[in-house]
Amino acid sequence: MDYLACELLRDSDVPLYEQLYDYIKGEITVGRLLEGDKLPSKRKLATLLKISQNTIQTAYEQLEAEGYIEVQARRGYFILPLTDLEYIESKMKNEGSTVGVYPKEQTAIYDFHPSQIDTVHFPYDKWRKYVKQHIEPVHQSSLLLGENQGELDLRQEIAQYLYHSRGVTCKPEQIVIGAGVEVLLQQLIFLFDKNTVYGVEDPGYHLMMKILHNYGYEVYPLLVDRQGVDIHAIKKSPIDILYTTPSHHFPYGTVLPIQRRQQLLNWAAEKDDRYIIEDDYDSEFRYNGKTIPSLQSMDRGEKVIYLGSFSKSFIPSLRISYMVLPKPLVKSYKEKLSFYHCTVSRIDQNALSGFMKDGEFEKHLNRMKKVYRRKVEIVLNVLKSFPQLEVMGESSGLHVVLIVKNGMNESELVARAKRERLKIYPLSNYSIIRRDDKEPQIILGFAGIIEEQLEHSLKALFKAWGMDEID
Ligand SMILES: Cc1ncc(COP(=O)(O)O)c(C=O)c1O
């Protein structure tokens, strides 16, 4: 064995050696590491996990001392049999004890979810400094409720950032901060009539469809071709509001061409109650050519509601997203929704605005662009050896779409991957209209896989699909 899919939390109070020790012990206890399995060498594991060999030595020594593993001279560390422990565990379970190690649900070795980000290069120390600053007595106000629309400082930072990076022109008064795009969408729909018909891209961001269904709205799926959503489909439909991802279609990753953008804006301008919701999620990471300007930057008719998020550009657990309302909708927002308290912690908002004001966010983005570019290159390099795979959406974002031409259907691909404890996400998860594609498509998020393991993880997946590598 030359790797361990162990994720270490560097800012945890639990020392790294203890986390590694717990992980290996858990894997042995639930039977994923078996008698006779060889653990990776200290040198190899230290490089993979980016920790010192001493840390690994301490974890291995502790496991050895407790009889989980043994060291064999010049051969390495090997897993020992666990018969006695199984007995103790089943006894504890029978007696209903709350103490002990219980088998975990089968976790995936590699999870290719498109919402994953790289957590290895997160600026832990810097971010901690900004969060800590706002739990000091000089910042007592951070403990109290802030502005409902979101902290003004953060809204100012966002307005500036959007202008420079996405060409979005707006004033802080137009920005509403919320704990995730789905929270903002739930507020947004209250600005419109109950009979509003929504159009969503199909395939598209599935939560948007679910939210609208939950609120009882009629949702109209608009089939997306390789360029994005098509005006003819929109014109044939009864929709009033279109939800779209023009700069980086989710999940195809394509860019809506300028002609189609213009057509969308013209369509919206034809009637007062037509709007376009532009979800600009993860458009920051572009690997070829210049960044694509937002649709909002072309809008002269106050028709575009712009949605943005820090989930990919920073971290998803922070839950900070925002919407930029066209000026006419700010008035209705104030009348109908301004009584809702902001759904994001004031401490986090203040930490983020300080982080942005000091230029740390920009530095972080630049660093991450390089990290993700390297990861995309690894993905593309591996794909070269597998002619049964076609790739889409590799120019931007943190996932690609694989078109798989090995004769298997979607469920077979998912099942084969699952058997090897690899988690993958088929296109049908993001589609409303069921299509029987002869060549199934898989959405493959690569950002969350450690760089050193990316090649291995992809090859493991393709092997699970029965594919041979060609030179
Ligand atoms: C297109 C799109 N928009 C928004 C989101 C979620 O954004 P947030 O984390 O800010 O709620 C996702 C998550 O996958 C997405 O794919």
From TrEMBL:
One of its GO terms (molecular function) is DNA binding. SMART domains: HTH_GNTR. The keyword Transcription regulation applies. Residues 14-82 form the HTH gntR-type domain. It holds the Pfam family GntR. Its cofactor is pyridoxal 5'-phosphate. SUPFAM superfamilies: PLP-dependent transferases (SSF53383), Winged helix' DNA-binding domain (SSF46785). The keyword NADP does not apply. Keywords: Aminotransferase, DNA-binding, Pyridoxal phosphate, Transcription, Transcription regulation, Transferase. In the C-terminal section; belongs to the class-I pyridoxal-phosphate-dependent aminotransferase family. This is GntR family transcriptional regulator. It comes from Cytobacillus kochii.
